[in-house]
Amino acid sequence: xxxxxxxxxxxxxxxxxxxxxxxxxxxxxxxxxxxxxxxxxxxxxxxxxxxxxxxxxxxxxxxxxxxxxxxxxxxxxxxxxxxxxxxxxxxxxxxxxxxxxxxxxxxxxxxxxxxxxxxxxxxxxxxxxxxxxxxxxxxxxxxxxxxxxxxxxxxxxxxxxxxxxxxxxxxxxxxxxxxxxxxxxxxxxxxxxxxxxxxxxxxxxxxxxxxxxxxxxxxxxxxxxxxxxxxxxxxxxxxxxxx
Length: 243
Hints:
Elements: E1 20-25, H1 29-41, E2 44-49, H2 52-61, E3 66-70, H3 78-88, E4 94-98, H4 103-111, E5 116-119, H5 124-138, H6 140-146, E6 148-151, E7 154-157, E8 162-165, E9 168-170, H7 174-184, H8 193-201, H9 211-224, E10 232-235, E11 239-242
Parallel strand pairs: 1-2, 1-3, 3-4, 4-5
Antiparallel strand pairs: 6-7, 7-8, 8-9, 10-11
Helix pairs in contact: 2-3, 5-6, 7-8, 7-9
């Protein structure tokens, strides 16, 4: 049974550190590896286990924010793992994966204590959407975390429109905020002036103006003044890079 992977697998732009821990019980090594890689690209911490009995022990001994369970596993099937886990842990969201797609199979999985049920094969983006939906319902901190971008001590909150560097509040204008957000979504990537103009100003690049250079300097002064590490670097004739 295969997992359908598309470019969405590597589409994450969030640069925050992993905060949400996912336990993945899947005996197909290839599928487990693909899921783990995709989730790590979207800033999740993932622990993989290939045996049902070992998975139950791990999930009972360690706290996870979400558990993904394959139904057909050696040692103990996912249905039984889910049942026993629910005897001691009523809150952790559980997403069940299986090749068994009949209505009765789905009902059995949900009645065992699973919160959602996804039939193989599936697209990774659907798996990710279901994970995020479960976390929104079960982990209030998830919604807040999704609003954050961070890099090198800078934390930008897209919801509250606030910026901090190493705990110090930084006041930015609306355009400076948009420009910083663009850099934070593209760390270690050279951004041309044309790219910045199109994505921060939503206009075609005008070679007769230095407005981008002016605003980059404004931003530099606000996020770098008083700090030892400089973050925005000029590549002469090419653009700017945050590193």
